[in-house]
């Protein structure tokens, strides 16, 4: 499984911990009479991965806000800073592993984005929240899954989502699955910095829609980071991540297959696949584009907008 360099120093400044009481993985909070599973099924079809085009994400966040009121919360990293100091802590704690993963992802794009695009990478925070949160895209609940809000350029995640991937979607789970999801969200941040969002019509759906292309590109960007994860360093010394196994990659691909539009519609919807409603791509597409990024290690290989073969 993924291993972090024991003596590496973790930087918690890229996280805003708004969970209150320091966190841990508690039970997710459902909204209204729909329940957690119903909300997840609906929102994942709509905006899992950030709704990077902006408009649709805001619409769904508004719906979620009606289901359960949001609260902006106050960030308090005190406990996180005390618990997550080194790579050894990341090897022992899921929360600290998430911090380490975020560090690694941003270290990679800080170095790679100017080289591959001529655009400087601007670091942004991930907000850890519990139950509900208020964002520039509207109110959201834990049922919305992780997402990126272009309005405030922040990544949001209730860490209980990673448990839900296993318990409700049947994913194998594991630290590298968490890494795939977080890297996907930061892929949306990269798209925002590059202006890729401008190519997408908000609310557009369908198997070849700009919305699907945006999501598949974020999957590919996640694979690109994964390719470089064991060689990425922010201190000119040794990489933060020392090992990624084939089992880790297989688990990420398994998770990708379970958040494809066709899987969600079949297993969490009405059992019928409607490609015209696709917003993220099929299970096969999500696996394939992550694999494209992982095998190539090249952001240039992730041009989902320049191909007819999605």
Automatic annotation (TrEMBL):
Cellular component annotations (GO), alphabetically ordered: membrane
Alphabetized PANTHER family for the sequence: INNER MEMBRANE PROTEIN, PUTATIVE MEMBRANE PROTEIN YPFJ
InterPro entries tied to this protein: Uncharacterised_pept_Zn_put
Keyword rRNA processing: no
Membrane spanning residue stretches: 27-48
Protein name as it appears in the record: Neutral zinc metallopeptidase
UniProt cross-references to SUPFAM superfamilies, sorted A to Z: Metalloproteases ('zincins'), catalytic domain
Ranges for region Disordered: 1-23, 291-310
Membrane topology category: Single-pass membrane protein
Keywords: Membrane, Transmembrane, Transmembrane helix
Statement: the UniProt record of this protein carries the keyword Transmembrane: yes
Subcellular localization, as worded in the UniProt entry: Membrane
């Amino acid at each position: 499984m993924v291993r972090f360099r024991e003596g590496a120093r973790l930087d918690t400044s890229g996280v805003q911990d708004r969970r209150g009481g320091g966190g841990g993985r508690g039970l997710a909070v459902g909204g209204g009479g729909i329940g957690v599973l119903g909300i997840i099924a609906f929102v994942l079809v709509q905006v899992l991965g950030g709704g990077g085009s902006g408009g649709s994400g805001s619409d769904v966040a508004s719906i979620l806000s009606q289901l359960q009121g949001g609260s902006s919360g106050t960030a308090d990293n005190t406990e996180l800073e005390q618990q997550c100091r080194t790579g050894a802590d990341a090897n022992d704690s899921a929360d600290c592993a998430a911090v380490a993963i975020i560090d690694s992802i941003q270290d990679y794009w800080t170095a790679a984005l100017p080289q591959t695009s001529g655009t400087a990478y601007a670091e942004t925070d991930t907000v850890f929240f519990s139950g509900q949160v208020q964002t520039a895209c509207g109110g959201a609940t834990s049922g919305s899954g992780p997402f990126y809000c272009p309005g405030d350029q922040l990544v949001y995640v209730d860490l209980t989502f990673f448990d839900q991937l296993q318990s409700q979607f049947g994913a194998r789970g594991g630290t590298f699955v968490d890494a795939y999801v977080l890297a996907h969200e930061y892929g949306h941040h990269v798209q925002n910095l590059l202006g890729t969002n401008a190519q997408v019509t908000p609310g557009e759906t369908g198997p070849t829609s700009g919305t699907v292309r945006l999501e598949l590109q974020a999957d590919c960007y996640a694979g690109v980071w994964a390719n470089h994860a064991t060689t990425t360093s922010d201190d000119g010394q040794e990489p933060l991540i020392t090992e990624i196994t084939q089992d880790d990659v297989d688990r990420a691909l398994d998770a990708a297959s379970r958040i494809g539009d066709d899987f969600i519609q079949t297993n969490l919807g009405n059992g019928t696949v409607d490609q015209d409603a696709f917003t993220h791509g099929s299970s096969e597409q999500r696996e394939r584009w992550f694999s494209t990024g992982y095998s190539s290690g090249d952001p240039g290989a992730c041009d989902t907008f320049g191909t007819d073969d999605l």
